[in-house]
Amino acid sequence: MSNLPKIAWIGLGIMGSPMSENLIKAGYQVTGFTLEQDKLDRLAAAGGTVAGSIAEAVKDADVVITMVPASPQVEAISYGPDGILENAKSGALLIDMSSITPQTSVDLAKAAKDKGIRVLDAPVSGGEAGAIEAVLSIMVGGEQADFDAAKPILEALGKTIVLCGPHGSGQTVKAANQLIVAVNIQACAEAVVFLEKSGVDLQAALDVLNGGLAGSTVLTRKKDNFLNRDFKPGFRIDLHHKDMGIVTDAARNVGAALPVGAVVAQLVASLRAQGDGGLDHSALLRAVERLSGAQV
After folding, report:
1. Cβ-based neighbour number of residue 291 at 10 Å
2. Contacts of residue 53, Cβ cutoff 8 Å, sequence gap at least 6
3. pLDDT tens-digit readout, 53-75
4. Phi and psi based region of residue 142 (left: phi greater than 0; alpha: psi -120 to 50; beta: remaining)
5. How far apart are CA 275 and CA 296, in angstroms?
6. What are the chain's domains?
7. Contact between 42 and 66 (Cβ < 8 Å)
8. Would you name the residues annotated as active-site residues?
9. Whether 236 contacts 279, CB under 8 Å
């Protein structure tokens, strides 16, 4: 029998499925629950155990990891008679890896403490590719002792793992991350349209740009999306729209001006309103093309 902690995983989407599979590969016993049967079948095929409910998944777990779309889903799976807090054992560690509002994380940690459950907020950056390759950047909020306990697990999922401060800090840093990513994608999208309309070899241009100061992880990861107009979702516009709402609201609360971020937030919102919410966030290119007169 393994001496590693037993893990319950709630939420097996684009990110959650490969992340849970990486824990299985690292030797952890993972019991999972999600709403889609095909995702449960995938977990079972990878060597995980399928649960029929949240309560069943978490009842014997030492560590519960959640990866769901937004604050309402985190609250739905955490609270109530069928939720995590009512059914996880006292002393369990809950690691929420969703991208949600900092206040939701603070409230969850407070409610969990009353049940004897420890909490970390640990959102990630790196997209689907980073999840598959286990090279995610993981920004964590919570207590040092809980972070130390969780670190071996997080090391099976990511490469850069940093405790950023108390509960909610991980979410605040993730909000800043999403601001930088959105603005960067928008700048790349504008450059692509400018280059193409100028008749430049786009492949050559992006290669040389990525080798200089204009280079970025965003350009490295999204270059082929731009070149091939391939917007299969790695991180959906719908989710980035949610994240831009989080960062603009949080910034307003602390008195930080985000003039460029606010504009990009509106461009993300407009793309979603035009029916592109299910596409990858590199589809911001489509918005720039529309503004530049193209029919897309």
Report:
1. 12
2. 33, 82
3. 999 999 999 999 999 999 999 99
4. left
5. 12
6. 7-165 (3.40.50.720), 173-292 (1.10.1040.10)
7. no
8. 174
9. yes
